[in-house]
Amino acid sequence: MGEQKKDVVRIVITGDTHLGGGRVTELARKGNVNSLFGEYADLIKTSDLAISNLESPVINDGTPIPKTGPSLKSPANAMPVLKKAGFDLVTLSNNHIMDYGEEGLYSTIKECKANGLATVGAGGSFEEASKPYFCEISGLKIAILNIAENEFGTTRNDQAGGYGMDPVQNYYSIRECRKDADHVIVIVHGGHEHYELPSPRMKKTYRFFADAGASAVISHHTHCPSGYEEYNGVPICYSLGNFLFDQPERDRSTVSSWHEGLIAELLVSQNKLEVRYHPYIQNYSTPGLRKMNQDEKDAFFNKMERLNNIISDDGRLEAEFKNYCERSYRMYSGFLEPHSNRLLHAMRNRNLAPSMLSDKKKRLLLNLTRCESHRDVLIKTLTP
């Protein structure tokens, strides 16, 4: 007897999963699904398609590539827990997938395959990285496209890596998927870390993906949940936040946005796609996920309502982003200083040392990064 068709297909999408740090690693190695996924284990297990972002390459040893920021990895013996929990697919296009180079990427793909997990968003070439994941569930043809903002992990010059954000190329990918799929779900890894709103550029780009034919646009990367909206009938979530990401050194005296997150449950039928958002606390007083209590949930969704109201108003969104940039000024200006170390950085933060950037130099840097033609050459010049 054939499988009975469902009127509604349930797809679960989560944010960043890192199995290589903190208290999570040992639980993952032991395959402790209940401790890791808590009261949401059943939601994942009973879904028709469960997807998580694998935030770190799966490799036991290896050498990290030269880059800025931390290099993450997860041990191979932690991977079986994802399939045991009910996950079917992991997205790989993110800013850490190439932290251990091609060896790390190929090891990740190999370990995923060995554990019955499909992958999307990264590969040994641009063609492999940009290839969507297709599946058919109860007669519905679903395409999953995975894109990341461009850092050290995205493919360049047809090298190994993740599928990078290029709205023109991404548009053609979405349109191509629409030829064969009833629904195209675009999963993006991008945004400003620890900032709870999208930039105006992100809002414009994600809405463009919806106009191109995406049925839903779901994002992660920022390590905090962001707001969401429905644009012309297309659900857009600007960040799900962390899913399983523990940092032993993080302050746990109070719940922060690092510990909060959302699971997106997509309810998909032939001509309709809706999203339910399930909030949780992750890796706070105990490792793994737990549901929010009623007071926590009320406070959380009040915050989401405030963020959503800002997102719906272009003027307020622009003003909030301007404030964020002003708060980030010292950090970014420090990146641009020709001479910098911890002492100089600390002194500049306290206005005890002058900036070495003249107004003339700032105008030059602005034009080099703002002008598309100059930026093309600048990126080529700085790329090893």
TrEMBL record:
Q: Which residues, if any, are the signal sequence?
A: none
Q: Could you tell me which Pfam families the record lists for this protein?
A: PGA_cap
Q: Domain Capsule synthesis protein CapA spans what residues?
A: 10-247
TM stretches of this protein? none
| Family, as annotated | Belongs to the CapA family.
Q: What is this protein called?
A: Capsule synthesis protein CapA domain-containing protein
